Amino acid sequence: YDDLKRHTTPSKYLSNVSPNFRTFLNKCRWRVCWIDNTADGLNSSKQVETLLLEVGKIIEQNGNISFYSNTLYTEAEKIMKTREEEIKNDQRKNENELSVLRIREEHLEKELKSKTWRLKDIERRLRELETTSRKSVEVQRTSTRSSKSNFSTAALQKEQEISYLNKEVEKIKSSDLRLIEKQREEIAKLKERLTRRHVKGNPRSMARKEVSRRNSCLSSKVSRGILALGKHLLTGIIGLLLL
Fold this sequence. Notes:
Order of helices and strands: HHHHHHHH
Structural class: mainly alpha
Low-confidence stretches: 226-230, 237-243
Number of strands: 0
Number of domains: 2
């Protein structure tokens, strides 16, 4: 205002403001407070009293609603803590599911080793039986009638054992090992999905970011509250800056 007194009048200054500032003044209903930076003593105190009086009038006109209060932030903190606990629970649940899958995976690996060892053992036994069968045929050709009868009984038992072992080999290869491999693939897919879903990080920080995004309207309310309480003051300050 001190510069205005030396160069122009408040009314002339306001008539020549920029379009953007004019739009801002319209939103503030052209409530302007002029501050004289050269004032001192009693005059300076009167300016402060005038400013506070104008702010009080605006608050009264707005129905004495205090937008800028601690209630909103207390509510936001409560929401954030609730979300923080939800994130912690999700992380624990996800980790527990991963632990169960790891245990199942270890069990399948042991079962796979056991079946593989069993398969190799059966194949080894089959090779032994085939070798002894060929030797038995050669011996049987030169043996007596009574000996041939004994060899026939032994050969039948070997054939039965070979048949049983071949069925075991087929079962292990076509059923057991395939089932284990299928289960391993399913576990791998589940682990991959859980790993992608399992977001590591500080639950508090994660909750704060989520609540901040979710409550953008809260910031809008606070901004409107600040504007409602301080339009007059803010207009005066900006007016001084543009002088």
